[in-house]
Amino acid sequence: MITGILRECGNEKRVAMLPGEAAVLQKLGPQVIIENDAGLNAFSADEEYRKAGVTPVSREEIFSKSDLILSVNSLPDDDLKYCRAGQVLCSVVNVAENSEWLESARSAGLTVLALDIIPRTTRAQAMDILSSMATVSGYKAVLDAAALLPRFFPMFMSAAGTIKPSRVLILGAGVAGLQAIAVARKLGAVVEVFDVRSAVKEEVKSLGGKFIEVEGAKEDAAAGGYAVEQTEEFKNKQRELIQQRAIAADVVIATAQIPGRKAPVLVSKDTVHSMKPGSVIIDLAASSGGNCELTENGKTVLINGVKIIGKSDYPSDMPADASKMFGNNIINLLKIILNKEGHLNLNMQDEIINGTTAVHAGEYVSRRAKQLLNIK
Ligand code: NAD
User: Fold this and answer.
1) Torsional class of 134: left (φ above 0), alpha (ψ -120 to 50), beta (otherwise)
2) Is the pTM of this model over 0.90?
3) pLDDT band at residue 55 under the 50/70/90 scheme
4) How many whole angstroms separate alpha carbon 305 and alpha carbon 263?
5) Is 171 near ligand 1, meaning CB less than 6 Å away?
């Protein structure tokens, strides 16, 4: 069984597996090959892979030789023609946004393991790429905000006077939000938090954040722990309360998402205009529309002295550790897929394998994928 690791395209700096993890994968059985210079932007040169027993090869060889192809992001559309029926692609797919790509892969007879739909269960935690990448985003967002803010984060009592601590408002206490609370608290900021899921209240408190409750939030057990769309009445009430807290804040870290939908708009134009000049908004939901009405994905905009940074690709800015986590997540997934001989064995009775397999043998498999694509 040959596993090929592809070089990423565009601005992506991560690689699906660093040399150390590739060596661990080889111990599980597969022979691993990697596209030339695939790890360069994550600070792992071909020489490091060679030392780990992994052979760098051309892109063509990855496609022609591999049974399993690993990448961080799904292959560019043009590359699908180089794949052959029966080959297994394993990457983040963003199923809801990439229905056409997935349909091409299905009709070409490929198997697609979509890492973004791994079930969010306790057993799958060590394979959960969304969680590990959200951890990177939450951490980096706070550091970015601290670097851009014209103020200190912690309180200082100095001979030059007393400096008040900065106030950080966090919207959405999922994995990224919780990490952001922890880092902002470590840097000494006062942290306030909004979420629609009451289950996170205790976690927010235990990290030292203040949970601001808006009554009347809609929760749905069938959403598998995720948030659901809220009523208009709730949204208006929440926007008002967020505005009050944002006026007092120095930093807003926005992380609120609803899977398969546009991100909820929580910070209105009005709210931005009423914030203090010098404040910073980091919008991690930028790629799905943004939590701030004025966010532009991939850009920094300045409105009345308030900087709005629309950035959903922080993991690519920390490529070394983000790639290490990514590779470890893949190894943990492959541990349940590879048989004793190190060959692929897709047991569709296993809820994690079934839940992650978007398409296989010409069929849509994962219930979550079908739900996101509206397939009966
Ligand atoms: P996410 O990225 O989908 O959303 C981020 C946060 O935004 C969520 O906490 C969500 O409730 C919140 N949000 C959505 N709409 C909002 C609104 N209108 N106002 C305020 N907040 C809003 O979330 P995530 O980080 O991917 O986590 C989703 C769920 O998965 C959580 O329940 C988390 O605990 C769970 N989870 C489970 C595992 C596991 O057991 N393997 C791993 C990771 C996450």
Assistant:
1) alpha
2) yes
3) very high
4) 25
5) yes
CA–CA distance, 299 with 292 (Å, rounded to integer): 13
* pLDDT above 90 (res 198): no
Mean pLDDT of the chain: 96
Q: Which of 356, 365, 366, 359 is nearest to 336 (CA)?
A: 356
Catalytic residue list contains 197: no
Q: 128 an active-site residue?
A: yes
Nearest to 126 by CA among 325, 371, 337, 367: 325
Distance CA 30, CA 359 (A): 22
Distant-in-sequence, close-in-space partners of 357: CB < 8 Å, separation ≥ 6: 111, 112, 113, 114, 346, 348, 365, 366
Is a pLDDT exceeding 90 seen at residue 125?
yes
Q: Is 321 a catalytic residue?
A: no
Instruction: Give strand pairing partners of 55.
Output: 33
| Strand ranges inside 206-362, DSSP E | 210-211, 251-254, 280-283, 300-303, 306-310, 357-360
Would you place residue 312 in the very low, low, confident or very high pLDDT band (cuts 50, 70, 90)?
A: very high
pLDDT, average across residues 28-54: 98
d(CA 76, CA 55): 23
Residue with tokens 């990224």: 176
For the beta sheet containing 210-211, the strands, ordered from the edge strand earlier in sequence to the opposite edge, are 210-211, 190-194, 167-171, 251-254, 280-283, 306-310, 300-303
Gap from CA of 226 to ligand 1 centroid (Å): 5
Structure tokens belonging to residue 207: 């990290």
Q: Is 180 in the pocket of ligand 1 (CB under 6 A)?
A: no
> What length is written for the chain?
376
Tokens of 244: 């009050």
What secondary structure does DSSP assign to 128-156, as a single string? -HHHHHHHHHHHHHHHHHHHH-SS-SS-E
For residue 220, the model assigns a pLDDT of 77
* DSSP letter, residue 212: P
